[in-house]
Amino acid sequence: MRIYISCDMEGTAGVCSWKQCDPENHDEYPTYRRYMSKEVRAAIEGAREAGATEFLVNDSHSSMRNLLWDELPHDVRVVSGSPKPYSMGEEIGSGADAAFLTGYHAKSGDRDGVLAHTFSDSTVYRVMMNGTECSEALLIAALAGVHGLPVLLITGDRTIVSETLRYLPWAVGVPVKDSIGYYAVNTLTPLAAQAAIRRGARDAVERRAKARPFTFDGPVEMLLETARVENADFIELMPGFERVGGRTVRFRANEYESAYRAYVAAVRLGGLANTVA
Length: 277
Ligand SMILES: [Zn+2]
Known about the structure:
alpha/beta; 6 helices; Gyrase A, domain 2; Rossmann fold; binds zinc ion; 5-stranded antiparallel β-sheet
């Protein structure tokens, strides 16, 4: 059995500041990338205990070059670097049987969401697919669904874990921390979180017979509300996008995969507005 793992960083136990997740920060980032890597390793080890045999890990945070090679088992494959057309879901259709999401976090605008965002807090206010407000977890779960993969495991803050389980009730959720605010948490220690993730991953694979792919049926309308008007100005430059409000753009596609790719591109292009003085 082959498992695809999309691993983010802000949902790692202990994390409560951008500095801890910022590759440019030489004080705190090295410590937390190690904890992120160890949580991925814990998920792999737990899945192995339940019979999973092959793993493809997609580093899904920021520069997407966070995972420490020495903290991973040596017999896994890793997707590293950025940009990638499918971003946090790169290579998800390359033959895996099921997916794990680790280190995930609450979506943009959530009340109880430490570092809550959906791809970019400076570009995205919220994104809807066919009227459903999406977190990163739901966006990637639906991309997995395109390829018939169910998501078996979600780990991260309690807000994203609870929300995701409402859409994917067959999945196992491992909340490693509770948000007290955008910059504060009540968290498990990294070691306790790793143990919980290992158990959760084992349970998730053991229960896989009940799991289903999550999908958005076509045609799909993607509505993106940007953080600021100038983000929408930039996204509107791209053919296929319709400006439907000061901070809102729309993209219509026959199927979800194209809508998702349009979203990835829009976040990139819209983000350029944040670099213009
Ligand atoms: Zn993220």
